[in-house]
Write a structure and sequence with these properties.
- The protein has 177 residues and is of the alpha+beta class.
- It is built from one helix and nine strands.
- The strands form two sheets. Strands 1, 2, 3, 4 and 6 form a five-stranded antiparallel β-sheet that branches. A four-stranded antiparallel β-sheet has the order 5-7-8-9, with helices on one face.
């Protein structure tokens, strides 16, 4: 009469099959997780922009989102991003100006054509509209983006024309090269 359980041979065969399945699926799972990481960063960045715009509207104060370095906005969008109230309107963070929130630095690239995104007291952009590109940094084809319109609204980039690539503000495929 057989006891309940598995034999050593059955366990070894199961482990070998599981090992083969993991080996086969690892590259696609790795790409899936990296793509999700870029998507998560895009969502967090878009949420930061929404919060900054709402603060500007609610308190009738200009708010700036940018990568701060020693109180001044830089062009290193991969670094830590800060949203702060620009009460004196000089475009840099003073000692008495409140930092609303920060977004940590990332190991991949964030690229934007300007050093800051500025919301006026009416919630409209006082800088140019554009797309913040979020790129894996290699030729993997992994990218995402956050679109900021002149009205101050923002959204995570989508494939609007169904060509398999996310589109920027102007409807062109986002490119990370």
């Amino acid at each position: 009469m057989r006891e309940r359980g598995f034999t050593l041979v059955e366990l070894m065969v199961t482990l070998v099959v599981a090992g083969i399945l993991v080996t086969i699926s690892y590259p696609s799972l790795s790409r899936f997780f990296r793509d999700n990481q870029l998507g998560s960063d895009a969502s967090q960045l878009q949420s930061m922009l929404v919060t900054a715009r709402h603060h500007a509207l609610n308190y009738q104060m200009p708010v700036i989102v940018c990568p701060l370095v020693n109180g001044a906005c830089s062009n290193n969008w991969s670094g830590e991003l800060s949203a702060f109230v620009d009460s004196d309107g000089n475009g840099s963070k003073g000692n008495d100006e409140e930092v609303l929130l920060t977004l940590e630095a990332v190991s991949y690239q964030r690229v934007y054509a300007q050093t800051s995104i500025r919301f006026g007291a009416d919630g409209m952009l006082t800088t140019n509209a554009g797309t913040i590109r979020i790129c894996e940094g290699d030729d993997s084809g992994l990218y995402n983006g956050v679109i900021v319109t002149k009205t101050g609204r923002s959204r995570v980039a989508e494939d609007d024309d169904h060509n398999g690539k996310r589109d920027d503000l102007n409807g062109n495929p986002i490119s990370c090269t």
